[in-house]
Amino acid sequence: MRQRATIGGVSETGTGTSQSLERGLAILSAFDSERPLIGVSELSRELSLSRSTAHRYIATLAQLGYLQQDPDSKRYRLGPKVLDLGFSAINSMDVREISAPHLRRLSDETGHTVNLAILDGIDVVYIERCRTAQPGQREIDLNLHVGARLPAYCTAMGKAILAFVAEDRREELIARIDFVRRGPNTITDANAFRVELARIRAAGIAVNDEELAYGLRSVAAPIHAHSGEVLAALNLAIHRTMGSMDELTARFGPAVKKTAAEISLGMGHRLAPA
Fold this sequence. Notes:
- By secondary structure, the protein is an alpha+beta fold.
- It folds into two domains: 4-85, Arc Repressor Mutant, subunit A (Orthogonal Bundle), CATH 1.10.10.10; 93-266, GAF domain (Beta-Lactamase, 2-Layer Sandwich), CATH 3.30.450.
- The chain is built from ten helices and ten strands.
- The strands form three sheets. Strands 7-6-5-10-9-8 form a six-stranded antiparallel beta sheet.
- The N and C termini lie far apart (54 Å).
């Protein structure tokens, strides 16, 4: 059993970490877009805490602005301080700063929305968007915004990143994915998904052919650090009425791949010639 000590009123475990901090962060991590409101009893059960202990942590987080109580249901939602932390983290990312002018140029040249995302567990998190007023774009924007989170397995950017992470890490992540059908062409089999990632590694480009939602197609490419590690991915979102997936890949794939390579060079990593 782990040893626990209290230093200055803060509970610490034998691993040198703070149990109080772990619990507070676990409470914040329980909230997501599919479950924005959670009650004290629900959190106490999920985190194996007594109701009084859960309430104490929640009250502290609410007092600090990280949680807010809904006046009608008395349940809690994330507070504005969480947004401050999230946007501070996003704004401090070198890849976002270096990518911004490249994304804007690609969007201007093609007339389509261009996005940048990183991998967080088995999800992608949007860290930059260059939106366009192209007809039909609103139908595929899906109310996405900087900070939005989507399952990596059914997005072009998610697949572009997963294809290039280390094999042991990739297998660990695949084992955690619940391959639920989200769009008409979602890949719902782990082995078929592995084949798709191998294809992406060979081509250097990933596509989303209505795998996330009806009407949404996109072309994506990975962005690498100077060490060769995959950092992020960018995509260009297209409505299905613009053409078949093969036509759209041939039309936009080279520009997407070129932009990703330019950003990677900006990160200090020289990519081998295609």
